[in-house]
Specification:
The chain is α/β, with parallel strands linked by helices and about 475 residues long. The chain contains 13 helices and 17 strands. It has a seven-stranded mixed sheet, with helices on both faces. A four-stranded antiparallel sheet has the order 13-14-17-16, covered by helices on one side. A two-stranded antiparallel ribbon has the order 1-2. Bound molecules: pyridoxal-5'-phosphate. Pyridoxal-5'-phosphate binds next to α6.
């Protein structure tokens, strides 16, 4: 880690001893960065030296505090400086200039290290996969399975699983269905692949979301429409003004900004679908993980004929299982089955039977409860660490799910991401999730997935995150 390479710091803050010549003709930030680089190259600033605070240097040089903060962040990103909450910004060890010879003009290191920590959203804690309970379910399920279970699979999915899911989804997520409306699939993305050829477009999507999913809804001739997002979620009241025939919503927990869709917005989505014959595709990717109050029920419960509910075990158990489900309006069931083909071609029957047993035996509920506690602890650890080490960073979207959004000052996201890469940290910025046609104001932020690292690596990942923050 960068800090272990930093020499012990001289005791005194250089403060007003730091004389910098800001060359005219450059922007203020660029001039400050040049001056700091020169000071390091010339050896006036030695490795480990603590730089003045933003405020002190800004006052000394007559600059805005933000200008200094941005220059420091850029130089951290380039590897000249290191930043650590509590010990300030220091000259990096690797920024040492050669003792003799000509002054180097090139940046000291061109490529960040391979990431050692992963705080990207997307995956649950793989180390917590319930191996023993899953094995026990597999043993029971395979022992009890009739011989025909091992023939060519039914494209609907095994009846045992569809029955278990109908009960579980009604109980835990407020989904209204019977097993005949459920079609098993290989996860949410597969569900989209099956549905898109059957539906009339164009599609509307939230203005922040996964580009991969958006791509599945688009063709070269048919872009998606971006629904603006605010603190109440997607502005579904705008749907009537669009040409969309279907809309994809993460109603329980907007991905990635966080927050449930406001009840009035849920109603507006369903009203629009009823009035226009449109369809809502509900992506319930992590609805079970809600920490501070009761889970928000599925939108599908408002109108099972106009909302297609899509879920999978990718967040609750593992994305490697490739096991998901579609709860379909009646008119779509046969069409989806025809699209799937005569046999089950994607999802292993033994996994389906195992999941059915896992749900019926209470193993799934136990696992969810255990993981909810674990993720909640991680979320609390993230929030507490930031409150202590980066109190100026606002954390949002923390009531649910496996990720949070750290709000950054406007314009700083790219440099913070670069800084994170130099800290060996893989993390995403909000920009990666923004729809190209979004009209929602640009938001700078980091999308921090706290589910992925194993427990032992989590504190070090948080440490790297704090060092990367402005
Ligand atoms: C927004 C969102 N939707 C859905 C999913 C699940 O996708 P899949 O079931 O295809 O793994 C994920 C990732 O787990 C996700 O982040």
């Amino acid at each position: 880690m960068a800090d272990s390479r930093v020499n012990p710091a001289p005791p005194a803050d250089p403060g007003s001893d730091l004389h910098l010549d800001l060359r005219p003709g450059r922007g203020r930030r660029a001039a400050l960065m040049d001056a700091l680089r020169d000071a390091v190259r010339s050896g006036r600033l030695t490795p480990g030296t603590r730089l003045p605070s933003y405020r002190t240097l800004a006052t000394d040089l007559g600059l805005a505090r933000n200008t200094v903060a941005e220059a420091y962040a850029e130089l951290v990103a380039e590897g000249w400086l290191t930043a650590r909450q509590g010990s300030g910004t220091r000259v990096a060890a690797r920024a040492t200039p050669p003792e003799r010879g000509p002054v180097r003009r090139a940046a000291p290191a061109e490529r960040p290290p391979r990431p050692s920590y992963d705080l990207r959203p997307g995956s649950p804690d793989a180390a917590s996969f319930p191996r023993a309970a899953w094995l026990a379910s597999a043993r029971r399920a395979l022992t009890a399975a009739p011989n025909d279970a091992f023939g060519a699979g039914d494209p609907r999915g095994r009846a045992e699983l569809r029955r278990s899911l109908a009960g579980y989804l009604a109980r835990a997520r407020g989904v209204r269905t019977d097993p005949d409306r459920i079609v098993v699939c290989a996860g949410f993305a597969h569900a989209l692949r099956l549905l898109v050829p059957l539906l009339d477009g164009p599609f509307a999507v939230e203005s922040y979301g996964l580009a991969f999913h958006r791509g599945l809804l688009e063709t070269p001739a048919r872009a998606t429409t971006a629904l603006a997002i605010d603190e109440h979620g997607a502005r579904t009241g705008d749907l009537p003004a669009t040409t969309a025939r279907a809309v994809l919503l993460t109603a329980a927990h907007q991905f990635p900004t966080g927050g449930p869709l406001h009840p009035a917005r849920r109603a507006a989505a369903v009203d629009w679908a009823r009035a226009t014959g449109g369809l809502v595709l509900e992506d319930d990717y992590d609805g079970e993980f809600r920490y501070d109050r009761q889970a928000v029920g599925a939108l599908q419960g408002l109108d099972p004929e106009r909302v297609c509910y899509l879920g999978s075990v990718s967040k609750s158990l593992s994305p490697a299982l490739r096991l998901g489900w579609m709860v379909l309006p009646g008119h779509l069931v046969d069409e989806v089955l025809a699209e799937k083909g005569e046999r089950e071609a994607w999802t292993s029957v033994t996994d389906q039977l195992t999941l059915a047993d896992f749900i019926d035996s209470g193993g799934y509920d136990r696992h969810i409860r255990r993981m909810r506690l674990r993720y909640r602890r991680r979320r609390d650890q993230l929030v507490a660490t930031l409150a202590e080490r980066a109190p100026h960073v606002r954390v949002t979207g923390i009531a649910a799910g496996l990720h949070a959004v750290l709000r950054l000052p406007p314009g700083t996201e790219p440099s913070v991401l670069k800084g994170a890469a130099w800290q060996g940290l893989a993390v995403d910025g909000l920009a990666a999730y923004r729809h190209p046609a979004a009209t929602t104001p640009v938001q700078d932020g980091l999308v921090v997935g706290y589910g992925t690292p194993p427990d032992h690596a989590f504190p070090a990942a948080l440490d790297a995150l704090c060092r990367a923050l402005p």
